From TrEMBL:
It is found in: Cytoplasm. It comes from Methylocystis heyeri. The keyword DNA-binding does not apply. Its main location: cytoplasm. The gene is ptsP. The chain holds residues 427 to 751 of 755 of the full protein. This is phosphoenolpyruvate--protein phosphotransferase. Keywords: Cytoplasm, Kinase, Magnesium, Metal-binding, Phosphotransferase system, Pyruvate, Sugar transport, Transferase, Transport. Signal peptide: none annotated. Belongs to the PEP-utilizing enzyme family.
């Protein structure tokens, strides 16, 4: 099977009826980076920077961060990398940072919330990224943004750092795209403004679904209780896509559901054309794409959603459709 998928590496990911899908790869460590080539991924669509911080035994200095980002960028000179700023807190703990006792860590002080409250840390990370990407394109996105104001604050910090390194005479990135992860449900009702202010949106479906259903993604008692392939989740995902399209901003999905062929099929049928996933998912998802009739899938899902009468999951229907492809 692995060999079969490896053979797909250089084949374009295009559906039977000619719709091209952009497949990107999720990464977090330098050892992941060579998989971009092995899998034929178009770019690194999500680089989880916190993994480097979790492996270190003290908070990495600016220089260490700079060297790390530069190593990643140098390893893929021909493809874009979308770095995500630190997403710590909740399930991602830094052993050397004093742990804060929180009743509900998933709803607690984490990710961009820490970055905005401790702007020194965020600034240092942004500066390291901006310097590492001197002379090339750079994409940065912020995790766990809950409202447009938080995105604006993070963006202003990034632009100030850009200005500072320019004034200090350092090489700056050729282009800088700043995006927001869409993973906190409140954003669903502020998408138009968000899409205006951001250069791109990236859906973090792992967290978005956890918060939509109020069901801990790591608690086995409840994690499987609700399905991603349900009308509420699919409607939410469609809304995000539509807001991006209206503002002319690209939307990618980088949560785990994009890497599962059946879920990926549903996402394409909803209108998604760009997915970022773990390296091992790219082959199986591409195999699904090659056998998919997009027009049929789109019509099938639209009618399933329109005719749904409270079924908690569309999985079985979608599975039947997929096996007939
Ligand atoms: C997500 O929430 O879907 C996501 C991509 O980020 P993480 O899994 O790192 O929280
Ligand atoms: Mg997340």
């Amino acid at each position: 099977r692995q060999e079969q998928y490896a053979a797909l590496r250089d084949i374009a990911s295009v559906t039977k009826d000619g719709v091209e899908i952009a497949l990107h790869m999720n990464a977090g460590l330098t050892v992941d980076v060579p998989f971009v080539r092995d899998t034929g991924a178009r770019s690194i669509g999500l680089f989880r920077t916190e993994l480097q911080f979790m492996l270190a035994n003290r908070f990495p200095r600016m220089k260490d961060q700079y060297l790390f980002y530069k190593t990643v960028l140098d390893a893929v000179p021909d493809r874009p990398v979308t770095f995500r700023t630190l997403d710590i807190g909740s399930d991602k703990i830094l052993p050397y940072m004093a742990t804060i006792e929180e009743e509900n860590p998933a709803l607690g002080w984490r990710a961009i919330r820490i970055g905005l409250d401790r702007p020194g840390l965020l600034r240092m990370q942004l500066r390291a990224m901006l310097k590492a990407a001197g002379g090339r394109d750079l994409r940065i996105m912020f995790p766990m943004v809950a409202n447009v104001a938080e995105f604006d604050l993070a963006k202003a910090i990034a632009l100030r750092e850009l200005d500072l390194i320019r004034r200090h005479g350092h090489a700056t990135p050729t282009t800088l795209d700043l995006g927001a992860m869409v993973e906190v449900p409140a954003l669903l009702w502020e998408l138009d403004q968000l899409a205006e202010h951001a250069d791109f949106l990236s859906v973090g479906s792992n967290d978005l679904v956890q918060y939509l259903y109020a069901a801990d993604r790591d608690n086995t008692r409840v994690a499987k209780r609700y399905d991603n392939l349900s009308v509420p989740v699919l409607r939410a995902l469609k809304t995000i896509l539509e807001a991006g399209a209206k503002a002319g901003k690209p939307v990618t999905l980088c949560g785990e559901m994009g890497g599962r062929p059946l879920e990926a099929m549903a996402l394409l049928a909803l209108g998604y054309r760009s997915l970022s996933m773990s390296p091992s998912s790219i082959g199986p998802v591409k195999a699904m794409i090659l056998s998919l009739d997009m027009e049929q899938a789109t019509a099938f899902l639209a009618s399933l959603m329109a005719n749904n009468d409270g079924q908690p999951s569309l999985r079985e229907n979608l599975r039947q459709f997929a096996s007939a492809q």
